[in-house]
Amino acid sequence: GSVLGVKEFDISYGDEVASALRDGAPVVALETTIVSHGLPRPDNLTVARQIEQAVRDNGAVPATIGMLGGRIVVGIDDEQLTRLATSDQVAKLSVRDLAVAAATGADGATTVAGTSAIAAAAGIGVFATGGMGGVHRGAPYDESADLVTLARCPIALVCAGVKSILDVGATLERLETLGVSVAGYRTTQFPGFFISDSGFALDWSLDSPERIAAALRARQQQGVHHSALVIANPLPTDEQLDPALHDRVLADGLAKLDSEGITGKAVTPFLLSHFHSATEGRSLAVNVRLILRNAALAAQIAVAAAGR
Amino acid sequence: GSVLGVKEFDISYGDEVASALRDGAPVVALETTIVSHGLPRPDNLTVARQIEQAVRDNGAVPATIGMLGGRIVVGIDDEQLTRLATSDQVAKLSVRDLAVAAATGADGATTVAGTSAIAAAAGIGVFATGGMGGVHRGAPYDESADLVTLARCPIALVCAGVKSILDVGATLERLETLGVSVAGYRTTQFPGFFISDSGFALDWSLDSPERIAAALRARQQQGVHHSALVIANPLPTDEQLDPALHDRVLADGLAKLDSEGITGKAVTPFLLSHFHSATEGRSLAVNVRLILRNAALAAQIAVAAAGR
Amino acid sequence: GSVLGVKEFDISYGDEVASALRDGAPVVALETTIVSHGLPRPDNLTVARQIEQAVRDNGAVPATIGMLGGRIVVGIDDEQLTRLATSDQVAKLSVRDLAVAAATGADGATTVAGTSAIAAAAGIGVFATGGMGGVHRGAPYDESADLVTLARCPIALVCAGVKSILDVGATLERLETLGVSVAGYRTTQFPGFFISDSGFALDWSLDSPERIAAALRARQQQGVHHSALVIANPLPTDEQLDPALHDRVLADGLAKLDSEGITGKAVTPFLLSHFHSATEGRSLAVNVRLILRNAALAAQIAVAAAGR
Ligand SMILES: [Mn+2]
Ligand SMILES: [Mn+2]
Ligand SMILES: [Mn+2]
Predict the structure, then answer these.
(1) Are A173 and B141 in contact (CB under 8 A)?
(2) How would you class A140 by CB atoms within 10 Å of its CB: exposed for 0-12, middle for 13-18, buried for 19 or more?
(3) How far is B248 from chain C (nearest CA, A)?
(4) Across chain B, which distance is largest between two alpha carbons, in Å?
(5) Sign of the CA dihedral B212, B215, B219, B220?
(6) Worst-scoring range by mean pLDDT, A33-37, A188-192, B45-49?
(7) What integer is the mean pLDDT of B76-97?
(8) Which one is predicted more confidently, A176 or A6?
């Protein structure tokens, strides 16, 4: 399995991340599909740097994760980030793609599932993203691998819920079925990504990074449960997309799916692009705001968990 | 992760349970949601003590499991049992709630999922309950976390099947899909909780506690399969709820769901309460009988497994 | 848990397999339900021997897996193979049945799920079969335990896809949800078992046994993902069942299900038998061809993975 003693597929670590992990300093994992596939160019690279800066501003080291030339890198540098943000040859890597992509020497951006699994394997306990995947509307078998992967990875995932273009209620049921913990950050209402409240209630609210860190410590000390803790972090109501606008755009989008006969894998990109154009870019600005807030909260949790 | 060397979230053990586990003596795990949420007061406390006694009468130590002030306790004492049976501030804790509840310092009663995971972590191999959770009727995504949790916990769960208010057929399919073993105790018909026979057949029947203990030993020695073994223990036909009454009450209840527009999470409590009133309390008496029988069988299995 | 120091339920190994595993020589796991339940007698025994020979011809040791008198045997001998091929008392053993069957002293043939789990426990990394299980048409809860089991077993499964009598699209979605890797062998079209192309596309193609071995090595070195890699190996188009015949027979079969009111567990055997008779045995010949090809490819992968 190795050439001259070098394992060709070992995970590589950025210097700063490697030293933080060695020292027990706070680290926050970040994904890269938002960079490669989630945000339009050239904003994607700017925003990716802002997310890393939000982690730093709150006292933690960002560990942005991706694949370069078949190697998983935890803590990519700015040159590698630029490559993933600008190349047209970047695969979207869920957890099941990591080994096959490595064998083909691919460049790749990791999804929530891929990043969660790598973070857990690397010993990084907190991960910030925008929203997590879920169950697709009207497609009972089309369920993101994020959910099952979270059920296997003992991390904290800070997100703003699930995009409303998915079936939020079914997604919450699956998280319950799969044993994934969910708590609101200072709320018992599950956030709706673009909007502060999805309309679905939560059983638990945690009110400080210290309390969240205590929950992570409890999980480790109890040794009973090995799934993720989703921290659902809503936008303040004055920063959300106007809920009336949101509901109208969503209803229009769903109606267009019907009238234009769009089904299956085409649904999500269609609805996201519809949101972007129908809100004249406001949905995108909201998307960026919530990610930066999630990165900041994740860093505060990592700091609290590191006991510093 | 600790204050003055004391880990604040470690599992606590009752003295008798701790010493039984140390000695390899037979222990049976018991859940507490039946005490806090499943049975009406003040019978709930009486019945909880009877269940513990049924375990003792059959040669094993009862390990009733709950959370007190944020601490998981395996083998709660009578004072703690009384607190969970009488307080109005007792959370219902599935496996995914354990760490978050601990961080909030809650009192809590553990579900089948929560208890199974704690028992497995504590090294207790046999668990007795009334019935396990399952798939909800007419709600494809509403599937109890019990099923996925059983797929992860190498314990034996003694129960009387699944309440008929759930979708029994879909539940059996999910158990098959998830790789959870199911065997009837002296029957190849899956019991129907209140009634002896749900109408669904099983592939395997085991005819003695010794044979069941052999299956648990086989699982351990093979080292191939790490999911639960459900022992489906039917009531004798002369102790069941009259099947004609059962079927009529169930049909009435399902019709009322339709006519009163009851859906989602309201379905199960509505149907259970309907059974209670429409059978003039007979369903409750049957419920208690089957739990006591399951506790006795579980103790016999634990004794056989301990090789005493 | 043992009698005179002998563990009664330990896995037994055939001599040749035991020595190959000790030496790190290439080994391929083979299942036995195809022998006991999948193929008509007496061809079943002949074909089983041909499959083993195909493994040998390509440089690896066949480890045919089954249960004899309650013992799992990895690498059954010809006498044991004959017993499973000719007895009428052979249980069909999925992973969840292994311990219970052992406790009853049964003879049994292992399914894809059962064989995958045993292979993984025995340290055998490559497994060849015909087709894997999947989601049943029109039966949302009827999903083969193969899928969840593959999500837990870090093996390579070489197969020709999923029989078209199942819901192929839903099966591919479940594999994605569960995090099971799928790659085509020299194709990006998922094969359709009897036919070379199911009509569904794949994200990844691997073009040599060495490349597949590299993916297995990457998975191990990364340490992130612990599920199976399905290698989908299509028949060459000139060896497939004529696609027009296939589509007509499938449509006829599905129509007959409706008109004859066949549902549930009766669907699959009905459709398989319909294929057999309606193609005048050609579907069976195709079935045998694809298994032999899968066995050969699996052996080549095992050889490449062993680095010889
Ligand atoms: Mn999908
Ligand atoms: Mn539910
Ligand atoms: Mn099935």
Answers:
(1) yes
(2) middle
(3) 26
(4) 62
(5) positive
(6) A33-37
(7) 97
(8) A176
